[in-house]
Amino acid sequence: MSEMNLTLKIWRQKNAADKGKMVDYKVNSISEHMSFLEMMDVLNEQLINSGDDPVAFDHDCREGICGSCSMFINGEAHGPVKGTTTCQLHMRSFKDGDTIYIEPFRANAFPVIKDLVVNRSSFDRIQQSGGFISVNTSGNTQDANATAIPKHDADLAMDAAACIGCGACVATCKNSSAMLFVGAKISQYALLPQGQVEAKDRAQNMVAQMDAEGFGNCTNTGACEVECPKGISISNIARMNREYLSGSLK
Amino acid sequence: MMIYPAVHYTMGGVWVDYNLMTTIPGCYAIGEANFSEHGANRLGASALMQGLADGYFVLPYTIADYLSHDIRTGAIPTTLPEFDAAEKEVKERLEGLVNNKGIHSVDYYHKQLGNIMWNKCGMSRNEKGLKEAIEEIAALREDFWKNVSVPGGAYELNPELEKAGRVADFLELGELFAKDALDRNESCGGHFREESVEVGGPQDGEALRDDENYAYVAAWEYKGKPSEAVLHKEQLEFNDIKLTQRSYK
């Protein structure tokens, strides 16, 4: 088993008011089989044992499905491996002696709470403004297969629904645009008959909320889809724009 | 990944009534958090099924019914003595943890606990191992409260403090479910006791249930210490189907 010694340059920021700075740390004997977050656990254990403040970072499922973990690693959201969240990134992607830069997902609409933890509740507010459908759940729920849906549409909706809302798209975009996220959330419903009840207002409301939160606009560089851990396509942004336009023609 | 004690090995969850309400009025536990649908088995896709069944078919009726009686209650003031007592308890607990300045990290205790659970309260259990586990966890819990070190303050984003609160709970839960596993001297569902195995016959080596003595759900009442938890038995009645052995052969 190969082990490595690494230099970490990590963004430390006590709280939202603190200016923050990069701080150097050394970790030794890191196994190539560790996940990136396990390596961070090792660093934190080391910091606690020497009486220092551990690095705060978001994590939950560590299975790549919850969207909690973030981290901008060596200039890339979720690090160097494509289609992978930080928790699913393993240390075998690095080599002995490497220097690794670790920063939070930066955007005006994602203010830093502490160290690598940013406040992504702006995404929740966008979702609340339109990312839902009207379904009766009072016990007489209709069988899911009772509504016929073309396979092609169902597949596209499923692809859009794969978005875990992590914010890698925002952190990557030079404009801090949230359009890949919003496009995915709108497409997921726009493609299905169940989503048609609110279709007129959904894109209007979600885009208005997105703008109010301070996210930037899309200039079609496509960087977001390259860094998206779930491979969400920018064709969802085109669909969002179409939904927005058709919603504005009342 | 540090997940032990894994909730699956409790083969249960929070006690709820038929409407999925816990022993706290108005507090409902649904999905994998409660014990109800699966009884002694918590493997496979049980979490998914339970979440869907509770959320789709049960809660829409039962919670609405509860709220219909409660809707005019209004805001509950925070000046009541119960509120002060609860606030004081939480504050003391949080401040106690950050001011403890002990010698071991929270992860140290989590790993020790995980090691005990994995070796003695995992997929197969026996009397000796479970008795050892109960003692070892109780000793570890005592050591935790004496020697845990939680950096940072109580009034800021403090992931170590959050973790300390969870591990403190695990240290109680871990001991309780070793106690429960010891008490149930039969193999049943995902709970496999090495002493309770079919010998000979077509089911040789398979899990052996003891329906005469254990056809009940064990609900443990919290009394502070896991060693003092009180057992309530809810008898299982089978009217339309007969209890039989599940054959994997």
Layout of helices and strands, plus pairs?
The complex is a heterodimer of chains A (250) and B (249).
Chain A: E1 3-12, E2 21-31, H1 36-49, E3 72-73, E4 76-77, E5 99-103, E6 112-114, E7 117-118, H2 121-130, H3 151-161, H4 168-172, H5 179-190, H6 199-212, H7 223-227, H8 235-248
Parallel strand pairs in A: 1-5
Antiparallel strand pairs in A: 1-2, 3-4, 3-5, 6-7
Helix pairs in contact in A: 2-5, 2-6, 3-5, 5-6, 5-8, 6-8
Chain B: H1 46-70, H2 81-99, H3 106-120, E1 124-125, H4 127-147, H5 159-183, E2 192-193, H6 211-214, E3 216-221, E4 230-235
Parallel strand pairs in B: 1-2
Antiparallel strand pairs in B: 3-4
Helix pairs in contact in B: 3-4, 3-5, 4-5
Give your account of this protein's structure.
The complex is a heterodimer of chains A (250) and B (249). Chain A has 250 residues and is α+β, with helices and mostly antiparallel strands. Chain A folds into 2 domains: 3-113, Ubiquitin-like (UB roll); 120-134 and 146-248, Orthogonal Bundle (Fumarate Reductase Iron-sulfur Protein, Chain B, domain 2). Chain A has 8 helices and 7 strands, in the order E-E-H-E-E-E-E-E-H-H-H-H-H-H-H. Chain A has helices at 36-49, 121-130, 151-161, 168-172, 179-190, 199-212, 223-227, 235-248; strands at 3-12, 21-31, 72-73, 76-77, 99-103, 112-114, 117-118. In chain A, helix 6 (199-212) packs across helix 8. The N and C termini of chain A lie far apart (64 Å). The model of chain A has no long low-confidence stretch (mean pLDDT 95). Chain B has 2 domains: 1-73, no CATH class; 94-249, Fumarate reductase/succinate dehydrogenase flavoprotein-like, C-terminal domain (Methane Monooxygenase Hydroxylase, Chain G, domain 1), CATH 1.20.58.100. Classes of the chains: A alpha+beta (250), B mainly alpha (249). Chains A and B meet through helix 1 of A and helix 1 of B.
